[in-house]
Design goal:
The two termini are 46 Å apart. The chain has helices spanning 25-29, 49-72. The protein has one domain (19-72). The chain is built from 2 helices and no strands. The protein is rod-shaped, with a radius of gyration of 23 Å. By secondary structure, the chain is an all-alpha fold.
Length: 75
């Protein structure tokens, strides 16, 4: 008579429901708020506000993503 098979452990479902993920809203919404950068002044090193604020939005997105990664990775 054959031995009965033992049930294999089912891996737990991955959950990405960390509250830190809500911070990803910042780099998504910030560039959409055009009244923040729809002007020529102030100028920074001769560049209009539109250009240097777009670069700043990139840095905010990188910083936010890095923070969320560090806070949510498994230790």
């Amino acid at each position: 008579m054959a031995e009965p098979e033992t049930p294999k452990a089912v891996p737990a479902a991955r959950s990405d429901r960390s509250p830190w993920n809500w911070l990803l809203v910042i780099p998504i919404v910030l560039p959409v708020l055009t009244p923040l950068f729809n002007h020529d002044s102030p100028r920074l090193w001769g560049f209009p506000a539109f250009y240097w604020l777009q670069f700043l939005f990139i840095l905010v997105g990188v910083a936010t993503t890095s923070l969320i990664y560090q806070m949510t990775k498994k230790r």
